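ZP: hey, is the zinc ion complex queued? I don't see it on the tracker
AM: it wasn't, my bad. submitting now with these inputs:
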Amino acid sequence: MKSQTRWSPFAAAFVFASTLVFAPYIAPPLHAQDKPAEAAPAPAADTFVIRGARVFDGERLLTDADVWVESGRIKAVGPHLRTAANVREIDAHGDTLLPGLIDAHTHTWADALKQSLLFGVTTELDMFSDPKFDAGVRTREAAGQNHDAADLRSAGTLVTVEKGHGTEYGIKIPVLASPADAQSFVDARLAEGSDYIKIIYDNGGAYGLTFPTLTKEELAAVVAAAHKRHKLAVVHIGSQAGARDAIEAGADALVHIFEDEPPAPDFPKLAKDHHAFVVATLTVNESVTGKASGVSLVTDARLSPYIDAASATNLKKSFPRGPASKVDFSNALAAVAALHKAGVPVLAGTDAPNPGTAHGVSIHRELQLLVQAGLTPAEALSAATSVPARAFGLIDRGRIAPGLRADLLLVKGDPTQDIAATRDIVTIWKTGFAYDRAPARAAVEKEKQDAAAARAAAPPTGSEQGLISNFDDGTLNTKFGSGFSVSTDSFAGGKSTADLKVIEGGPNGAKNALQISGTISDAFAYAWAGAMFSPGATPFAPANLSTKKSLHFWARGDGRACRVMLFTQSAGYMPAQKAFAAGPDWKEVVIPFSELGGTDGHDINGILFSAGSITGPFNFAIANVSLQ
Ligand SMILES: [Zn+2]
């Protein structure tokens, strides 16, 4: 997939992390067309019996129980099961069998569901994604073709207001205008396929920011509208005050715990009396405080052979912490402990793929943090199996019991004693099909070898002086690499256009400059259009520019914000981006690599000078472009 993509469709997956001032808790979904669903033929169902494992059935530990699987379902559970002669035997003495894990807070696109299954997550509960993507997964699940990926239940488009959280990603989403619209808004989401309704109720105060959010009246109206259709209403909150309002408005769940202040003594009882449940998302609570929650996963030898470079990069990130932020991770741990003690169901959720997380692998960190908060390891395992299944009405999964789906995870050791044992995966079964982890491991190994080769590669010929182009020769040719060319969202289904023209006159008496003009169209959610410089010998081939530290150029334009997007192989072609101003006068722009996803420059595929995401015509020029 990656190697044949020129101007990769993943380019569309712009925007989170590096340049957003705030992005607490959600990341942008992608359009379904960015990663077409491939219909794999359904293999024949296997029949087998797993003998002698410790079995954690989702609620309690059974010692020395056998589990018999037939046609994708659990047929029987018990000691010394007598099976037919043709039933394959799997000896699992010393190992522990768990229900497949459920991550109760994710944002899902592209290959997220495959990544999840690779680490034992067999169901993801999405809290904001593209309804078109979700529909594709549903079709695959219904056709029995989803053995090689986690299942998905999804909120689809979330409920927020104009300029509220959820609208900052440059993706056009419908927003709620008044309480009177609540029912039609909710009904439109259900028509798109939403399994439950996710509401944003967060004014940014916990992070020292200010942005609009639903009024209390709107919140209550949306909750009531969801309940009228017998759907769960779950709420993203950022503060304890917000959590209180949500629960008092009748919300079924909070999908984050707050950490702006310690839990008030009466808060757990409030949640308990209202029968609310809480998806803790401690992983991202930790990341929001500025600590890279996932970094310990990258160095865990039980997991690292399966973590690809893009995931590793994201796991090592955290949210930038603003100066007025009030968040304190100890508050989140205390709130989870108090809720759990009061008998409020606590669910494991990662909020992948926000900074500090990755799909699948982060559930193992979340389990560890739940134990840190005071759950026993067995209770933490329930928080990722039977508890979310019950809370979300998933009656066919979450436990190991006759009749349920054979979504199973076999691990070495005993995670009911040491929660980190969930990382030592022996076998993952999805509806009775053993998932082959070897290809993913081989791909990660090859990626590591390729990265080592790229680091050892000589810099591109002609790059020594650092000048890319001053456009003096009147062409799009460059001193090294394969020149400038037009790049737009058109190959990803967009309709944006760009035109490149060398014009006379540049800054400080320079002879020429490159004019970049065109139109940003709203046909594609991640619209872009501009000039792509490819530093490699062929377009988009990686080049080792690790001797350089920053991008320098001059810019002038119509006053609208423009963007530099840097594509590297190790970030999985997900561009890091940085806005720059292009006003009436020429101004020098210097962007250190550290502000472009922190790349060391060893595998740069392309540097894109694009218009901003606002639709309409644009016109800007760049001159004297260099790497230094
Ligand atoms: Zn989220």
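AM: back. Confidence is low (pLDDT under 50) at residues 1-41.
ZP: great, adding it to the tracker
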